[in-house]
């Protein structure tokens, strides 16, 4: 489907059973970066691609499928690395209380990974078909309801399929990785400790920490390396070893890839007192 944007505000509803959408749209290849304050309550369904979502100065990696939210008065900064596929839902400012009451919008849950993408993609296709129908007025109630189902489906597995105990335990593991990134981590072993499969472990870790476990570990090791480069005079090869990199040449490649400069150049540029 090509780019599509439909304005629903003011169109008649026959049943009024769901929060009424103001506007909707489909962007097959979104390339622009959003940096603005919205007057509305919005959901952005990232169906393909990856990028970032920055809120309160904290930048998060976004990988499809995922849902981003925006709300009135909050500076929003997000967008694709190159391009992503997106469905957007826009609700007027006066819908905020209803969206909160239904549990669909929470400012302390600004974005999330989708736990059941297969069902979400089915609903997205249904939504796109309704939105593209020439008889838009006959579908306003259906679109309002389908929009709620889209948000609900994106949340449902995360809310009902994940035992409550897993989030604190996975966050505790993340804290352990940050404190001691140099030790080897066996994800099969960590999954077994939680009584879940490796596949489930990977899905839950991504949902709660917004990064795959391996990438989270790599970032923690690179962060530790940055500190040691600035705070010590240890040789680069020794820093690599202390940060869990068995191969100093691999460390050098990864460091340059992540930072855009060599470890030595990073040290020279940031040396305390230098």
UniProtKB/TrEMBL annotation:
The keyword Transcription regulation applies. Keywords: Activator, DNA-binding, Transcription, Transcription regulation. SUPFAM superfamilies: Homeodomain-like, Regulatory protein AraC. Residues 171-269 form the HTH araC/xylS-type domain. InterPro entries: AraC_XylS_family_regulators, Homeodomain-like_sf, HTH-like, HTH_AraC, HTH_AraC-typ_CS. Transmembrane segments: none annotated. GO terms for molecular function: DNA-binding transcription factor activity; sequence-specific DNA binding. This is Helix-turn-helix transcriptional regulator. It comes from Victivallis lenta.
């Amino acid at each position: 489907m090509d780019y599509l944007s439909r304005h629903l505000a003011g169109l008649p509803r026959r049943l009024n059973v769901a929060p009424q959408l103001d506007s909707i749209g489909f962007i097959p290849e979104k390339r622009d970066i959003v940096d603005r304050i919205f007057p509305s309550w919005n959901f952005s369904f990232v169906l393909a691609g990856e990028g970032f979502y920055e809120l309160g100065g904290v930048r998060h990696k976004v990988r499809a499928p995922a849902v981003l939210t925006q709300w009135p008065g909050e500076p929003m900064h997000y967008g694709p690395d190159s391009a992503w596929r997106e469905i957007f839902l826009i609700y007027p400012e006066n819908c905020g209380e209803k969206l909160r009451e239904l549990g669909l919008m929470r400012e302390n849950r600004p974005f999330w990974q989708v736990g059941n993408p297969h069902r979400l993609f089915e609903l997205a296709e249904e939504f796109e078909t309704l939105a593209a129908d020439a008889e838009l007025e006959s579908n306003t109630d259906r679109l309002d309801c389908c929009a709620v189902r889209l948000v609900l489906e994106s949340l449902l597995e995360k809310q009902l399929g994940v035992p409550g105990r897993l989030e604190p335990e996975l966050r505790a593991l993340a804290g352990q990785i940050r404190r001691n990134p140099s030790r080897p981590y066996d994800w099969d072993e960590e999954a077994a400790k939680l009584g879940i499969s490796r596949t489930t472990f990977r899905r839950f870790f991504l949902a709660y920490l917004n990064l795959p476990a391996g990438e989270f570990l790599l970032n923690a090791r690179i962060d530790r390396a940055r500190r040691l480069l600035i705070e010590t005079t240890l040789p680069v090869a020794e820093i690599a070893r202390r940060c869990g990199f068995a191969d100093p040449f691999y460390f050098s490649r990864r460091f340059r890839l992540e930072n855009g400069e060599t470890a030595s150049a990073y040290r020279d540029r940031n040396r305390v007192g230098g």
